[in-house]
Design brief:
- The chain is of the alpha+beta class.
- Helices cover about 20% and strands about 45% of the residues.
- The protein is built from two helices and eleven strands, in the order ααβββββββββββ.
- Strands 1, 2, 3, 4, 5, 6, 7, 8, 9, 10 and 11 form an eleven-stranded antiparallel sheet that branches.
C-alpha cells in the first residue's frame, strides 16, 4: 500500500511540474490542427490580400491569407505564425471601429506560449469598394500562461471580396 501511495504521489508531482510543458505542447498541437484544417490560404501580394504589423518591435508580413468568408475571420499567416481579426461583412464601412474587448484577436506565435489573445485594441476600416476592404489595427496580446504581454502595432490588412 505504501509503495502504491508513493507511486501516486510521484505521478502527481510529475504532472504538476510538467503542466507548463504540457500546455506548451498542447498549444503547438492546436496550431498544427488549425493550420491543417484551414485549407484555402491565398498568397499575399502588393495589390491583393495583404497583412502586416509590428509584433513586439519586429516587422511581420503575412505570406498568405485566408479569404474571410470561410472562417469569418481576417487571418494572415507566415511560417506557422498568424494574426486572426474578427470579420463581419456588415462592418466593412469606412470609419467603422471594432473594439477588441468584445471581439478578440488571436495571435499565434512560434514561442513558448504559442496562443495569445488580444482584448485591448481596435481595428478601423479605412477604405472599401466593391472589390476590397482595408483597415488598420493594433492590440495588446496576453495569455493565461504568463504575465508577459505582446504589443502589436501599425497593423494593416487588405482583403478581397469574392
Amino acid at each position: 500500500m505504501r509503495k502504491l501511495l508513493i507511486a501516486i504521489l510521484a505521478l502527481a508531482f510529475a504532472n504538476c511540474s510538467g503542466q507548463k510543458d504540457n500546455a506548451i505542447e498542447q498549444a503547438k498541437a492546436t496550431k498544427e490542427v488549425l493550420k491543417e484544417n484551414s485549407p484555402g490560404y491565398v498568397a499575399t501580394s502588393a495589390e491583393g490580400y495583404y497583412m502586416k504589423a509590428i509584433i513586439d518591435g519586429k516587422e511581420w508580413v503575412a505570406t498568405s491569407m485566408m479569404p474571410p468568408e470561410e472562417p469569418s475571420r481576417i487571418i494572415g499567416e507566415k511560417n506557422g505564425e498568424s494574426i486572426s481579426l474578427p470579420y463581419d461583412r456588415r462592418d466593412m464601412v469606412v470609419g467603422k471601429k471594432r473594439n477588441f474587448e468584445t471581439y478578440a484577436v488571436d495571435l499565434l506565435l512560434n514561442d513558448d506560449v504559442a496562443i495569445w489573445g488580444g482584448h485591448k485594441g481596435e481595428m478601423v476600416i479605412t477604405k472599401i469598394d466593391d472589390k476590397s476592404a482595408e483597415g488598420n489595427f493594433y492590440f495588446t496580446a496576453s495569455s493565461d500562461n504568463t504575465t508577459k504581454t505582446i504589443q502589436v502595432t501599425d497593423g494593416f490588412f487588405r482583403i478581397i471580396f469574392k
